[in-house]
Amino acid sequence: MNPKIASFLADRIPATPCLVVDVDQVELRYCELEAALPLARIYYAVKANPALPVLQRLVALGSCFDAASWEEVSMCLEAGADSSAISFGNTIKKVSAITSAYAAGVSMFAFDCDEELDKLAIHAPGARVYCRLLVENAGADWPLSRKFGTSVEHARALMLRARDLGLDPFGLSFHVGSQQTDTASYEAAIGRAAMLFTDLAAAGLDIRMINLGGGFPTRYRDDVPEIDQFATAIGRAMTKHFGNALPETIVEPGRFIVGDAGVVSSEVVLVSRRALPGALPDDAQESVRWVYLDIGRFGGLAETEGESIKYQIRTPHDGSALGPVAIAGPTCDGADILYERSNYRLPLDLASGERVELLSTGAYVSTYCSTRFNGFAPLAEHYI
Ligand SMILES: *Cc1c(COP(=O)(O)O)cnc(C)c1O
Prior knowledge:
Layout: H1 3-12, E1 18-21, H2 23-36, E2 40-45, H3 52-60, E3 64-67, H4 70-78, E4 86-88, H5 95-103, E5 108-111, H6 114-123, E6 128-132, E7 140-142, H7 152-164, E8 168-173, E9 178-180, H8 184-202, E10 209-211, H9 227-242, E11 248-251, H10 255-258, E12 262-275, E13 287-293, E14 313-314, E15 322-324, E16 326-328, E17 337-339, E18 345-347, E19 355-359, E20 380-383
Parallel strand pairs: 1-20, 2-3, 2-11, 3-4, 5-6, 6-8, 8-10, 10-11, 13-16
Antiparallel strand pairs: 1-12, 7-9, 12-13, 12-19, 14-19, 15-18, 16-17
Helix pairs in contact: 2-3, 4-5, 7-8, 8-9
Bound molecules: pyridoxal-5'-phosphate.
The site of pyridoxal-5'-phosphate has 16 residues, from helix 10.
Domain Orn/DAP/Arg decarboxylase 2 N-terminal: 24-259
Active site: 332
Catalytic activity: L-ornithine + H(+) = putrescine + CO2
């Protein structure tokens, strides 16, 4: 576990549940990605963790930002980002959000359909726009397909139409899915985007940007490839398709930048045994040990949906005998189960009242927290 966070927890013993984020670790990851992909400009995906200390540190490092709403645009501006460093990357935007962002100087917007293009033409005239392509999300633990992106054929027509509407259709984007563990997914997506890029350039469009999206993984329970392996695959594909005439390249990492900078400290509320469905209530062989924490699906661990993201859990008894467990949150909702089928094992000595830590919870936790479900206060956050 991160030593800075470990000593913060030991010294301060903050009330649980809480998220502790080491902002120096955020910087480390940013610099690591910058070194791995020196030709790409980093647009941090704000939604992964929009906390002011994170945004301020990234502004100081020269990062650009990918915002999904006017509120996220405002947070970036408040943190000191220049409006020219902000991309409004959500393909689904309220007119009021487009208007506010455009008035604030944001001039880079994503789209993937005619209807959104019409909104941009009216409310952000002349803006730089880029079209999101639909690509394979195989290999991603948290896929982002279906809802976003369009076909190469449709994107081609959209880009030409964007020019006719007086916009500056300057690039293409894709997202290979979050927590993507297969480097080949970037190569395939780059190939698809490059084909259209070349085609549009031949059609006379002043196209000059490729946005590779996010997806770079954080290490949770299982190993993932190193960032250098992704960089190598990306570099190889870019050179193969563009030669020396590399377009302006953008990446939009979220999880990779903040994921392993955060630790959730949680209290064990209850340890009990529950009979398997169909078993007699007092048959120990037919029961499962359940550990209930004071954080669950509604306290911020939304990505445990479908047991997709598998956080590592530290306990005061690590190293002692383990046994299988189901792990759940504290609310009165039956869906508030974190892990039942993922073969989690925790120390047999673990007891209620003890504290555990969920590692690599810096991304997609603080903002997924519900506000007052069952009366529980929102997740406390400490940035150190
Ligand atoms: C969520 C998102 C990202 C960040 O994805 P990660 O998997 O966290 O890196 C980047 N771009 C867009 C458009 C997104 O929606």
